[in-house]
Amino acid sequence: MRFFEKYRGRLFALLLTLTVLFGIGIFRLPALPKAFVPPEELQTHEFLEPEPEPEPAAILGAVTILADKNPICTLINEAEAMALLRYELVQAFIPPQGEMLHFAAFVKQLELRYAKPGEEPMLLSRAKGLLKANADLCPVIYTARSVFEEALEYERTFSTDARIPKNARLVNALGKPGIKLTVTETTYVNKMPSGSAAIVKIELINPCAEKVSKGAFKPGNAGGNPSRHEGEKGPKAPSGFSLALPVKGNISSNFGMRSGSMHYGLDIDAKPGAALTAPEGGRVIFARERSSYGFVLELEHAEGFVTRLAPVADCTLKPGELVDKGQQLGVLAMPSDEEAKPHLHMELLIGGIPYNPRQYLK
């Protein structure tokens, strides 16, 4: 207490001095912002920038089609991408009636790559609709062809043959019309015609002339029955060739003019069901029904010799089959005319002309 009273004046002066100095320091400090950070804290403080949103990931296995390096659509996998391209080439275009699709190709260079992030795959049906609505995205060039057929008439030639009865005709070669085929081609781009149709090919199948021989043969006894030696002498038989009667029986009618009409073979009387055998070895060239003849069987032998037998029953031979001389061919059938006497009719044709078979019987 004594100390305070002794130094009271000095303590008061010191307190006053400190008060003044403190007040001056406060007024000299600038006003601090509310978010003020001391310099020493700035050295250790880290400012965190906001993280960017992650990019969408690519769909695994998805495939993008590019035309001239430009993406046009994305499919869920390679199989659907290829199906779309095949559809565009083969099925997207239907040629007009009468034309056939011949060629198709993409105008732009196409390639496939795996889809990138952001390339969303679409359904195959939607991709087809996209390309249909925007043909320029993936243009296709098509060519379609048409075939025009024009018939060409054949000629008919006539000749006279003394081996054929007068007023009779023999067709040596059947006429066959020719054909002119004209092939035209039309080009389509984006399914629209580009220019007019152009002729790309003409094919000719020449006609075959019909050759007809007119008969000039005059038998000695035109109104009666022919003799066994009737008819012109035929060509020389091939080596080893000789005919045998196909059925056991008597020859009731010969080759030649019979009651004013020509009889082109021999009639051999036999009972229906009698076995018929090959008169000579050869190849079957005809085996079926033929008008009033009934079932006809024709055998081709050497050098254009052909024998014709009718009517035949129970025959199972087919054209192209080979038979040996004496081999059973079938049996004698009933005549188509119930009042006619059962018989086998046998003809011999050489080069398409009928001759008397008796000349070649052994």
Can you characterise this structure?
The chain has 362 residues and is an alpha+beta fold. The chain has three domains: 63-138, no CATH class; 147-215, Resuscitation-promoting factor rpfb fold, CATH 2.20.230.10; 220-360, Glucose Permease (Domain IIA) (Distorted Sandwich), CATH 2.70.70. It is 15% helix and 39% strand. It contains four helices and 24 strands. The longest helix is centred in the first third of the chain and has 27 residues, at 2-28.
Strand percentage lies at 35-45%
User: What is the 3D shape?
Assistant: rod-shaped
Main β sheet profile: 8 strands, antiparallel
Q: Can you tell me the CATH superfamily of the largest domain?
A: Glucose Permease (Domain IIA)
> What structural class should be given to the helix and strand makeup?
alpha+beta
The CATH architecture designation of the largest domain is: Distorted Sandwich
The CATH class of the largest domain is Mainly Beta
Radius of gyration: 55 Å
* pLDDT < 50 runs, ≥5 residues: none
N- and C-termini, Cα separation: 185 Å
Whole-number total of structural domains: 3
Helical content band? 10-25%
What integer is the average pLDDT?
Answer: 84
What is the CATH fold-level name of the largest domain? Answer: Glucose Permease (Domain IIA)
Output the number of helix runs. Answer: 4
Beta-strand segment tally: 24
What order do the helices and strands follow? HHEEHEEHEEEEEEEEEEEEEEEEEEEE
In short:
With 362 residues, the chain is of the alpha+beta class. The chain has helices at residues 2-28, 39-42, 78-91, 124-133; strands at 63-67, 70-75, 100-106, 110-114, 140-152, 156-165, 169-173, 178-189, 192-193, 198-205, 210-217, 251-253, 256-258, 261-263, 265-269, 275-277, 282-290, 294-300, 305-310, 312-313, 322-323, 328-332, 343-350, 353-355. It folds into three domains: 63-138, no CATH class; 147-215, Single Sheet (Resuscitation-promoting factor rpfb fold), CATH 2.20.230.10; 220-360, Glucose Permease (Domain IIA).
